[in-house]
Structures are given as C-alpha cells and as structure tokens.
Design a protein that fits this description.
By secondary structure, the chain is of the alpha/beta class. 50% of the residues lie in helices and 14% in strands.
Length: 222
C-alpha cells in the first residue's frame, strides 16, 4: 500500500521515463537472447536428410495431436520428419517426449501411435511421459535415458532452443527441422517463442532450472 502511494506521488514524466526504460530493457534482453541462441546453433540444424550425420537416437519433442479440434500441423510434421530420418537410417531409435500431466492429455502415446501407424517398429520407440517442457525433454534424454548422440526433431524455431539446452549440457546433438508450418497457422507460436528463448537463457544461466521429474535411469536397448 505504501509502495502504491509512493508511485502515485511521483511526477507523471518520471513514471513514463522509468516505464520506457523498463520496456527498452526487456526488448534488448529478448533480442540478445534470441540472437545468441539462433547464432550459436545455426550450424547444427539441418532440413535435408541426405546431409545430416547419423545419430543413435532421435528425440521428438511433444505437442498436441489436435489444435482447436483440427489436426495439428506441428504434430504431423514432426512425425513425418522422424519417420523420414528412421527410414533413411539416420537414427536407430526414437524417444517421444511429451506432456502427460492430465489423464485425458497424452502427447507421448499419441506420437508413439502415429509412428507405429507409419511403420516404425514398437521396439524402436521409447516413451517419455515427463517431457512437460523442452528443457525437461532434453535433460531427461541425457540424464534418464543416457543419450548424448541425438537428433532433435521439431520445427526450426523450436530446434534452436532445444539445441541451446543440449549444448549447455555438452550433448553431441544435431537437429532436423520439419517442413515449415504456414505463418497464418503459427503466428502465436512464433511470437511466444521469442520469450521462450529468453526464458531458456534464464533457466540455464540464472535459475539453474531442473526438470520437474528425474528418477531412475532407463536403459534403451538399441
């Protein structure tokens, strides 16, 4: 209450000055974080299957199968990319990491079922039900499933952030970007990603955020 009274007593020009400074600071921080992440991961991202080096495991980052009652292109394109990499011999095993925090919401099972339907053997798929965030998916791939040589599979803007996290943990990671989702379909996601990249820097270098759940190691038979 006392703080509000102090604010009210400040001249309008002073309030405007500090508000402008705060907005500028946020803008500079967001631009810096995005530039850092994009430039530092550029050489590790591929969209041509023939050019990417083979890795042991593909890590498919989770998303909802449906969006507003319609098939989610982000989901479909990630599945298509994983299948393409597997059939080209670029990966031997696939981890599908997604959110299963609600009984009626299960990204990992949806991805698993879509991969099996596309011809990937069930024995070549491992489900991670605790991939609540990108950070969780990447760190659990390393610490729970013991994988360092991975190809991360998602859209390019998402791959940049995931690779940044993988690099922080010194993983031997590359990323394969799916085909582009139309801008009109992904504008909100693209805007949100600018702030997500900033949060990734904060999580790694300031807050030292860990996954929501770790637990016992899981051996993957490859």
């Amino acid at each position: 209450m006392a703080f509000l009274q102090k604010v009210k007593s400040l001249p309008f020009k002073k309030i405007l000055k500090w508000a402008s400074f705060l907005v500028l600071l946020i803008a500079v921080t967001v631009i810096f974080c995005n530039t850092w992440i994009i430039k530092s991961t550029r050489s590790q991202i591929y969209n041509d299957v023939s050019k990417i080096e083979a890795r042991t495991v593909g890590l498919v980052l989770g998303t909802n199968k449906f969006s507003r009652g319609r098939p989610n292109l982000f989901f479909n394109y990630r599945i298509e990319a994983a299948v393409e990499l597997f059939k080209a011999g670029k990966i031997k095993h696939i981890i599908v990491s997604g959110d299963n925090s609600k009984e009626e919401y299960d990204e990992s099972t949806d991805m698993h079922d879509a991969l099996v339907e596309a011809g990937i053997p069930d024995s070549c798929i491992t489900m991670d039900f605790a991939g609540f965030r990108t950070l969780d998916s990447v760190v659990r791939c390393l610490k729970i499933f013991g994988q360092t040589d991975v190809i991360i599979i998602s859209q390019e803007f998402h791959n940049e952030r995931a690779l940044f996290i993988a690099n922080y943990y010194k993983m031997n990671a590359l990323a394969f970007s799916t085909k582009e989702v139309p801008v009109r379909y992904s504008i909100k996601t693209s805007i949100r990603e600018y702030f997500a990249k900033c949060k990734a820097v904060l999580d790694l270098y300031v807050l030292h955020t860990q996954p929501h759940f770790l637990g016992e190691e899981v051996k993957i038979r490859i």
